[in-house]
């Protein structure tokens, strides 16, 4: 998860484009010939795209961009701490 990338995705892409890209990456991850390195990169992109989608949703609900980014970051970090 990289907040600057999530911010860039949020600012430059609409939710529909992000969702389409997410579908492609998820499909790609299921191919047999995908290496672990490819999966790591796809996983990082998927996380960042999901973050941008959540930021879009939170901003639409009235949150500021900064707060929405912080909420997502805390959510991810909180889930890591639980493992």
Question: What would your notes on this structure say?
Answer:
InterPro entries: DUF6952. It holds the Pfam family DUF6952. By secondary structure, the protein is mostly helical. It has one domain. The protein is 81% helix and 0% strand. It is built from 4 helices and no strands. Helix 2 runs antiparallel to helix 3 and helix 3 (36-60) packs across helix 4 (65-81). The longest helix is centred in the middle third of the chain and has 25 residues, at 36-60. The radius of gyration is 13 Å and the shape is globular. It starts with a helix and ends with a helix.
| Tally of domains | 1
- Residues in helices, as a percent range: over 70%
Q: How large, in whole angstroms, is the Cα Rg?
A: 13 Å
Distance between the first and last residues' Cα? 16 Å
- DSSP strand content: under 5%
Number of strands: 0
Helix-strand topology string: HHHH
Low-confidence stretches: none
Largest sheet: none
The overall pLDDT, averaged over residues, is 92
| Anisotropy-based shape | globular
Output the structural class: mainly alpha
Give the number of helices.
Answer: 4
């Amino acid at each position: 998860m990289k907040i600057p990338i999530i911010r860039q995705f949020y600012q430059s892409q609409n939710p529909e484009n992000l969702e389409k890209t997410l579908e492609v990456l998820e499909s790609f991850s299921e191919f047999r010939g995908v290496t672990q390195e490819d999966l790591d990169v796809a996983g990082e992109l998927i996380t960042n795209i999901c973050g941008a989608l959540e930021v879009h949703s939170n901003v639409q609900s009235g949150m500021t961009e900064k707060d929405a980014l912080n909420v997502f970051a805390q959510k991810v970090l909180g889930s890591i701490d639980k493992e």
